[in-house]
């Protein structure tokens, strides 16, 4: 980085800031930028030393792979050895957008990007800032969420700064993200495609495009994951986080916290009243709920809540991705 550039700068997006960020990426820096899902922490995907900086900044285990963001389907095909018909259909249907395809990688993709697996996860983002940055940089950008490993994903530039501080070179501030949770990830390397991570592009939508899909085999311990988002504990606030379906349990937890002089926050989607808790009500539709979830968790964490409760969402296909995020955030590992 040149002496004229101030490290850890939050820049409003314009032509100059995009050029600076693109130059930073080409020279091995790490740049946080908005996608339509969450903010990503980007590095030149084919530069092993640059990619290593992502893992160091996040405290991310090396067995947890990264998603590589590319400008278009042609750029994705340049990084893989196979491009099956299913990939073509999904790319035509959902790209640019919040869907990630896992395919066999070419040797030019460093093993560090893929958790030493022979596959790479690829996505064409829809956010105009991400797309402009990819065009300006002219490189594939590896980018997990721009936060400390297992913490709450960021949906604003301020969330990135609070989580990573001086660990990132430039933050491009493109405002709040639209989708709010991470992309759906589908593995196309097996006999039957497998959804490795649920997202707002649902299994129903994918099956309408390519036919039947399945769930992945569980992966335990330090074995490489074929996709990000497969750790037991993920998306978690600093506070003790619990999901409740029984309202009486929530009331009891709040009373216990009060007796210990602890502050409780709560996230609900129904008209549930929880006296004694700082309560944030999110929309009762999946898209609106997803858009506000991480921001609500950040807000309650910043308030200093020791305990955060979340009302469980419906067990229906359109809510599957949100249930996944809530249950992983509540997982004790």
Structural write-up:
- This protein is of the alpha/beta class and 333 residues long.
- The chain has helices at residues 15-26, 48-58, 73-77, 85-94, 111-114, 128-137, 157-164, 203-210, 247-259, 286-303, 320-330; strands at residues 9-12, 31-34, 39-44, 67-69, 99-104, 119-123, 141-142, 170-173, 184-187, 194-197, 240-244, 264-268, 277-281, 307-311.
- The protein is 33% helix and 19% strand.
- The strands form 2 sheets. Strands 1-8-2-3-7-4-6-5-9-10 form a 10-stranded mixed beta sheet, sandwiched between helices.
- Strand 9 (184-187) and strand 10 form a beta hairpin.
- The longest helix has 18 residues, at 286-303.
- It starts with 8 loop residues before the first strand and ends with a helix.
Descriptive labels:
single chain, 333 residues, alpha/beta, ten-stranded mixed β-sheet, four-stranded parallel β-sheet, 11 helices, 14 strands, 33% helix, 19% strand, globular, disordered N terminus
């Amino acid at each position: 980085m040149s002496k004229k550039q101030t490290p850890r700068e939050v820049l409003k997006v314009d032509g100059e800031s995009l050029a600076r960020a693109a130059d930073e990426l080409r020279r091995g820096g790490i740049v946080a930028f908005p996608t339509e899902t969450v903010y990503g922490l980007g590095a030149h995907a084919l530069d092993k030393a640059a990619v290593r900086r992502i893992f160091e900044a996040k405290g991310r285990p090396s067995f947890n792979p990264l998603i590589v963001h590319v400008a278009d389907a042609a750029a994705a095909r340049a990084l893989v050895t196979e491009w099956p018909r299913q990939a073509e259909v999904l790319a035509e249907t959902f790209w640019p957008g919040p869907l990630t395809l896992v395919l066999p990688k070419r040797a030019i993709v460093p093993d560090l990007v893929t958790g030493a697996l022979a596959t790479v996860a690829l996505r064409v983002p829809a956010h105009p800032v991400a797309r402009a940055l990819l065009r300006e940089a002219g490189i594939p950008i590896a980018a997990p969420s721009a936060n400390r490993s297992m913490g709450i994903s960021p949906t604003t530039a301020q969330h990135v700064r609070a989580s990573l501080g001086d660990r990132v070179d430039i933050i491009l501030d493109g405002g709040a993200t639209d989708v709010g949770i991470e992309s759906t990830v589908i593995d196309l390397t097996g006999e039957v495609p497998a959804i490795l991570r649920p997202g707002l592009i649902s299994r129903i939508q994918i099956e309408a495009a390519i036919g039947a899909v399945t769930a992945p085999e569980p992966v335990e311990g330090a074995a490489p994951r074929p996709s990000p988002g497969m750790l037991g504990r993920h998306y978690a606030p600093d506070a003790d986080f619990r999901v409740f379906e029984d309202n009486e349990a929530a009331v009891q937890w709040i009373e216990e916290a009060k007796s210990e002089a602890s502050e409780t926050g709560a996230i609900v989607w129904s008209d549930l009243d929880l006296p004694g808790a700082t309560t944030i009500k999110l929309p009762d539709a999946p898209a609106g709920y997803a858009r506000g979830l991480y921001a609500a968790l950040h807000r309650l964490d910043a308030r200093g809540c020791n305990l955060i409760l979340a009302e469980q969402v419906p067990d229906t296909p359109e809510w599957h991705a949100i249930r996944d995020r809530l249950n992983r955030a509540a997982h004790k590992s």
